[in-house]
Structure prediction request, 230 residues.
Amino acid sequence: MLGNTKGKRLDKYVEDYVVFDLETTGISCIKDRVVEISAVKVLKGKIADRFSTLVNPEMKIPFRASEVNHITDDMVKSAPVFEQALDDFNTFAGGMVLAGHNIHTFDMKFIQRDAKAYWGQVFINDYIDTLALARQRLPQLTNYKLTDLAGYYRISTEGAHRALADCVMNQQVFEKLGKEPWPRTSGIKGKKCPKCGLLMKKRNGRFGGFWGCSGYPDCRYTEDLGRNGQ
Prediction:
């Protein structure tokens, strides 16, 4: 749903949401473009609908991008441009919470950039980044790639790096993460950033421990630890 104010990142599980994923010509949200967008609509924890389309980026797809996502120039030459695809995605998602893996620093930046360019508005949907959620709920792990989390939960990774397959995988991972308890040693449950509302977490810096917002680098709010380190 479009409006004038970007939605907030949430750090919790919800039953109804839309998982989405992009494949792009590269990792720069300044110069690169989308070549595929897919999504699955989830109601009460179950997939209820699917959306997927290739996108003509109106530029040559770099060989290195094609190596990863297996999308070629021939595949997208008759596909819609992203303005149409993003409009269709907006209709599909409506006002639902968005979810995805690493979308806080990647996918959201692409769709917000292009929504602003096309229509002068941004997505106001709140969203959940399952990468951040996994780091909070599974601090014992050392790798948090989507395929690593799928392996941890014994979820199939077949078709990884194509958008729709990644959405389905991500949905299953999110459902598992939603059942994970908060680690007792994390020190972050319940303490929220007074500036943006995201969870705070304990960090170590040059001059000792401090509270830092989990929304860093977008939010740089910090607090000193109390006398008891709390």
The longest strand covers residues 34-43. The mean pLDDT is 91.
